[in-house]
Amino acid sequence: MDFSLSEEQLMFRDLARKFAEGELRPRLREAEQQGWVPRELVAKMAALGLLAAHLPTDAGGAGIGCLAAAVIWEELSKVSWTMTLGALGHAVLSGTILAAAASEEQRRQYLAPLCRGELLFATATVEPNAGSDATAIEARAVLEGDCWRLNGTKNFVTGGGRADYLLVLAQTDRQLKAKGMVLLLVDARAPGITRETVRLVGGRSGDLVNLAFSDCRVPAANVVGRVGRGLHAAFHGIDTARVFIAAGALGMAQGCLDAAIRYSRERQQFGRPIGGFQLVQETIARLYAEISSLRWQLYYAADLKDRGQPHGKELSAVKWLASELAVRAAAAAIRLHGAYGCSDEYPLEHHYRDAVLSTILGGTSEMHQLMIGRELTGFNAMV
Ligand SMILES: Cc1cc2nc3c(=O)[nH]c(=O)nc-3n(C[C@H](O)[C@H](O)[C@H](O)COP(=O)(O)OP(=O)(O)OC[C@H]3O[C@@H](n4cnc5c(N)ncnc54)[C@H](O)[C@@H]3O)c2cc1C
Question: What is the tens place of the pLDDT at every residue in 340-350?
């Protein structure tokens, strides 16, 4: 058992740290206001090998696996989680799905430009009546000659406003339930698609939209994977996204801890630095203990995944606990900064707004507890 990061992992960590400080931090407020991250920044991230780091080299990625990519995501999210959100929908969710399920022709046409950040992708599964229960989707795909006719609504699509292509999960035969689903690659400029911008409490530069498809025609060849395996393909991407969401949550928590330590050394009250008070140290010590423990759980789960081993409960455990820790860490760090922590002068209030979202996307905390429970007891308490 070796607990040290490899030379390559350390190199990517340092690269990500520099990129986050030099490129993300100065643009955070602007990106939050406009609602998305500029394409040139996505392209820069790609040029450094940070965007699609986990994807295999033959797909155009850096081929360093999920563990090393999680280290990258921690560094980026320490500075700004919301600025990684679009990349999560694009390279992590959509990229993973395409790398695993796309045909050779689709890989050639779409995957390399995705990895270079030239074409942007988003994945749309969730609907008004189908959130945690993905088997309940109502979007309908009907094959008519050489085209699918797509109708339905998709909500909270990350990166959906500016995406060039959408991976849309739809039902072909309601009787077949999960086995009737298809994942379609849809040109985002095709007629019959309307978008509505979504403004959430955080994740403000994630370019989230709700999408409506009305008799949208999609070429028959644009099935990703096989008809009947759409949900399976989507779940494969969501599983990988969970590694990145947990890493992002730990990054946010670490960013909050770093700020708390800095401030506790600078801020004087009652004639001495507040870091000298025992209760302040308790806050810092608790965050340190929780973050460093969960970081090993994250690396363990990511390593299992990289080695193709079962990793369900291990990943659910860290996705659940790290996202909830990020919420607590942001609140504790803001408290430690007093009123200054609530102002946007300090790098905390955006973590406070973003952290809560990490408890929801990629499966809510409740769903992850139920998944762990199902694996350990053999009983499914979800339905
Ligand atoms: C920032 C962000 C980005 C997102 N990006 C995307 C995206 O790119 N593409 C996409 O398709 N979707 C996306 N989503 C949607 C996300 O996947 C869903 O929000 C999530 O799956 C939960 O669905 P829901 O919001 O409908 O909540 P619901 O499923 O309605 O859940 C509501 C509450 O009920 C609880 N609950 C539900 N079922 C059970 C049960 N069986 N037992 C106990 N409790 C239960 C949940 O835990 C939750 O607390 C995004 C969401 C967010 C916040």
Answer: 999 988 889 99
